[in-house]
Amino acid sequence: GQNIDQPTEMTATEGAIVQINCTYQTSGFNGLFWYQQHAGEAPTFLSYNVLDGLEEKGRFSSFLSRSKGYSYLLLKELQMKDSASYLCAVEDSNYQLIWGAGTKLIIKP
Amino acid sequence: ETGVTQTPRHLVMGMTNKKSLKCEQHLGHNAMYWYKQSAKKPLELMFVYNFKEQTENNSVPSRFSPECPNSSHLFLHLHTLQPEDSALYLCASSQDLASGANEQFFGPGTRLTVL
Fold first, then answer.
1. Most buried by CB count within 10 Å: which residue of A89, A94, B24, B97?
2. Are B21 and B5 in contact (CB under 8 A)?
3. Are strands A103-108 and A9-13 parallel, antiparallel or unpaired?
4. How far apart are CA A51 and CA B58, in angstroms?
5. Looking at beta carbons, which residues of chain B come within 8 Å of A50?
């Protein structure tokens, strides 16, 4: 079966760094996405990885290891507005997105 | 209007009612999706349309009926729903299927409550 695992909830302090992990087992792989979803709002695109390595975009970076079926999202210099759920999704061989249940990130002052 | 819009934002209906959810995208995309989002569960893909043709129906009960009259509009017709169908229904669009880095743009969702 297809499976995406990520922690249910994480807590971090404003100004700190947090890493949200995602492991996956899917039928085929055409890329991995990270989305951010604030409570009551639509998911919004953060990053896309298709090759191994680190993609950096401002305060956010995303890493991929295809051989390990593993990715992480790294958030630096945390701000209160980063409190949200972070969704990991893998595009499978049918070009469908398989979604994790999301990680709720709580930022404390 | 820009991006992806959905109406209504909130809907309460009885199990015998018939209602429709509407989605419109202003991005010139060719693929549109319906997802169901329940608390603490992964997004569940319900239906996919690519160039107005339905490509996926992931074992969705027949009480949910999609309609895609053109590439910009997508409907989800609802009838005789069950309380467990209460959820956030999200519409999304993307350039098309299989175009690589197929970023999906989401609407704000319809919060559905079935009594």
1. A89
2. no
3. parallel
4. 29
5. 100-101
